[in-house]
Amino acid sequence: MYGSTRTRTMSEEWARWRVLWPINFDVARTSRYRIVTKGKAVQNPDYNLLLDGVKKTGVNFHEEPNKRHPADFFTSGRIRFSLEGNDSFTSKLQFYFAVADAMKAIQTERAEAAAAAAAAARKGQPQAKGKGQGKKAASNKPKKPRKRR
Protein backbone atom coordinates (compact mmCIF):
# COMPACT_ATOMS: atom_id res chain seq x y z
CA MET A 1 0.00 0.00 0.00
CA TYR A 2 1.45 3.27 -1.07
CA GLY A 3 0.92 6.29 1.11
CA SER A 4 -0.71 4.31 3.91
CA THR A 5 -0.94 6.01 7.27
CA ARG A 6 -1.56 2.72 9.05
CA THR A 7 0.49 2.34 12.24
CA ARG A 8 2.50 -0.77 12.83
CA THR A 9 1.49 -3.24 15.48
CA MET A 10 4.11 -4.40 17.96
CA SER A 11 4.47 -7.79 16.25
CA GLU A 12 5.32 -6.05 12.99
CA GLU A 13 7.77 -3.84 14.86
CA TRP A 14 9.50 -6.87 16.40
CA ALA A 15 9.68 -8.48 12.97
CA ARG A 16 12.17 -5.79 11.95
CA TRP A 17 14.42 -6.25 15.01
CA ARG A 18 17.61 -8.30 14.99
CA VAL A 19 17.63 -11.87 16.32
CA LEU A 20 19.86 -13.64 18.85
CA TRP A 21 19.92 -17.40 19.28
CA PRO A 22 21.75 -19.42 21.97
CA ILE A 23 23.72 -21.10 19.16
CA ASN A 24 25.29 -17.69 18.41
CA PHE A 25 27.24 -17.85 21.68
CA ASP A 26 28.18 -21.57 21.74
CA VAL A 27 31.93 -22.16 21.92
CA ALA A 28 31.52 -25.62 20.33
CA ARG A 29 29.99 -24.21 17.13
CA THR A 30 31.91 -23.08 14.09
CA SER A 31 32.14 -19.44 13.06
CA ARG A 32 29.29 -20.09 10.63
CA TYR A 33 26.85 -19.96 13.56
CA ARG A 34 28.86 -18.19 16.27
CA ILE A 35 28.89 -14.37 16.20
CA VAL A 36 31.48 -13.82 18.94
CA THR A 37 35.03 -15.07 19.28
CA LYS A 38 35.73 -18.41 20.97
CA GLY A 39 37.29 -16.55 23.88
CA LYS A 40 34.01 -14.75 24.58
CA ALA A 41 31.68 -17.68 23.81
CA VAL A 42 30.25 -19.94 26.55
CA GLN A 43 29.73 -23.68 26.82
CA ASN A 44 26.22 -25.04 26.27
CA PRO A 45 24.27 -21.78 26.28
CA ASP A 46 20.52 -22.04 26.66
CA TYR A 47 17.64 -19.64 26.21
CA ASN A 48 17.48 -18.62 29.89
CA LEU A 49 21.19 -17.78 29.96
CA LEU A 50 20.80 -15.69 26.80
CA LEU A 51 17.74 -13.96 28.23
CA ASP A 52 19.57 -13.05 31.45
CA GLY A 53 22.54 -11.78 29.44
CA VAL A 54 20.36 -9.52 27.29
CA LYS A 55 18.50 -8.26 30.37
CA LYS A 56 21.81 -7.15 31.91
CA THR A 57 22.61 -4.98 28.89
CA GLY A 58 19.41 -2.94 29.19
CA VAL A 59 18.31 -2.86 25.54
CA ASN A 60 14.78 -3.21 24.17
CA PHE A 61 14.06 -6.87 23.51
CA HIS A 62 11.24 -9.31 22.86
CA GLU A 63 11.23 -12.92 24.03
CA GLU A 64 10.28 -15.76 21.70
CA PRO A 65 10.81 -18.89 23.82
CA ASN A 66 9.19 -21.38 21.42
CA LYS A 67 11.16 -20.57 18.28
CA ARG A 68 13.82 -23.04 17.11
CA HIS A 69 16.96 -22.49 15.06
CA PRO A 70 17.14 -24.78 12.00
CA ALA A 71 20.70 -25.91 12.81
CA ASP A 72 19.97 -26.44 16.51
CA PHE A 73 16.42 -27.73 16.53
CA PHE A 74 16.49 -29.26 20.02
CA THR A 75 17.32 -25.96 21.74
CA SER A 76 14.35 -23.62 21.74
CA GLY A 77 14.16 -19.87 22.17
CA ARG A 78 15.36 -16.71 20.55
CA ILE A 79 15.43 -13.04 21.45
CA ARG A 80 14.72 -10.11 19.18
CA PHE A 81 16.41 -6.85 20.10
CA SER A 82 16.62 -3.27 18.95
CA LEU A 83 19.52 -0.90 19.56
CA GLU A 84 17.51 2.16 18.48
CA GLY A 85 17.25 4.72 21.24
CA ASN A 86 20.07 3.09 23.21
CA ASP A 87 23.20 5.22 23.48
CA SER A 88 25.30 2.70 25.40
CA PHE A 89 26.17 0.64 22.28
CA THR A 90 27.55 2.18 19.11
CA SER A 91 27.45 -1.05 17.09
CA LYS A 92 25.77 -4.43 17.14
CA LEU A 93 29.16 -6.12 17.57
CA GLN A 94 29.75 -4.15 20.74
CA PHE A 95 26.33 -5.32 21.94
CA TYR A 96 27.13 -8.96 21.08
CA PHE A 97 30.35 -8.79 23.10
CA ALA A 98 28.51 -7.20 26.05
CA VAL A 99 25.92 -10.01 25.98
CA ALA A 100 28.68 -12.63 25.76
CA ASP A 101 30.51 -11.11 28.74
CA ALA A 102 27.27 -11.00 30.74
CA MET A 103 26.49 -14.62 29.84
CA LYS A 104 29.96 -15.72 30.91
CA ALA A 105 29.61 -13.92 34.25
CA ILE A 106 26.15 -15.42 34.84
CA GLN A 107 27.37 -18.91 33.95
CA THR A 108 30.29 -18.54 36.39
CA GLU A 109 27.91 -17.35 39.14
CA ARG A 110 25.60 -20.31 38.53
CA ALA A 111 28.50 -22.79 38.59
CA GLU A 112 29.80 -21.35 41.86
CA ALA A 113 26.32 -21.47 43.40
CA ALA A 114 25.87 -25.08 42.31
CA ALA A 115 29.28 -26.02 43.74
CA ALA A 116 28.43 -24.32 47.04
CA ALA A 117 25.08 -26.13 47.21
CA ALA A 118 26.76 -29.47 46.48
CA ALA A 119 29.38 -28.79 49.15
CA ALA A 120 26.66 -27.93 51.65
CA ALA A 121 24.80 -31.15 50.79
CA ARG A 122 27.97 -33.21 51.23
CA LYS A 123 28.83 -31.53 54.51
CA GLY A 124 26.41 -33.69 56.47
CA GLN A 125 27.54 -36.96 54.87
CA PRO A 126 30.56 -38.94 56.07
CA GLN A 127 33.36 -38.93 53.56
CA ALA A 128 35.41 -41.93 52.57
CA LYS A 129 39.08 -41.54 53.36
CA GLY A 130 42.18 -43.03 51.89
CA LYS A 131 42.74 -45.25 48.94
CA GLY A 132 39.73 -46.78 47.24
CA GLN A 133 37.20 -44.03 47.80
CA GLY A 134 33.77 -44.89 46.51
CA LYS A 135 34.33 -48.67 46.53
CA LYS A 136 32.02 -51.05 48.31
CA ALA A 137 32.74 -51.66 51.96
CA ALA A 138 34.67 -54.86 52.59
CA SER A 139 32.57 -57.69 53.95
CA ASN A 140 33.55 -59.69 57.03
CA LYS A 141 33.60 -62.97 55.10
CA PRO A 142 37.03 -64.51 54.65
CA LYS A 143 38.27 -64.63 51.08
CA LYS A 144 38.45 -67.96 49.31
CA PRO A 145 41.97 -69.01 48.44
CA ARG A 146 42.81 -68.81 44.77
CA LYS A 147 43.49 -71.99 42.94
CA ARG A 148 46.96 -72.33 41.53
CA ARG A 149 47.54 -73.97 38.25
Summarize the SSE layout with pairings.
Blueprint (H helix, E strand, L loop, with lengths): L9 H6 L2 E3 L26 H11 L2 E10 L2 E11 L9 H32 L26
Antiparallel strand pairs: 1-3, 2-3
Helix pairs in contact: 2-3
What does this structure look like?
- This protein has 149 residues and is α+β, with helices and mostly antiparallel strands.
- It has a domain of 104 residues: Phenylalanyl-tRNA Synthetase, Chain B, domain 1 (2-Layer Sandwich), CATH 3.30.56.
- It is 33% helix and 16% strand.
- A three-stranded antiparallel beta sheet has the order 1-3-2, with helices on one face.
- A hairpin with a 2-residue loop joins strand 2 and strand 3.
- Helix 2 packs across helix 3.
- The chain is elongated, with a radius of gyration of 25 Å.
- The N terminus is likely disordered.
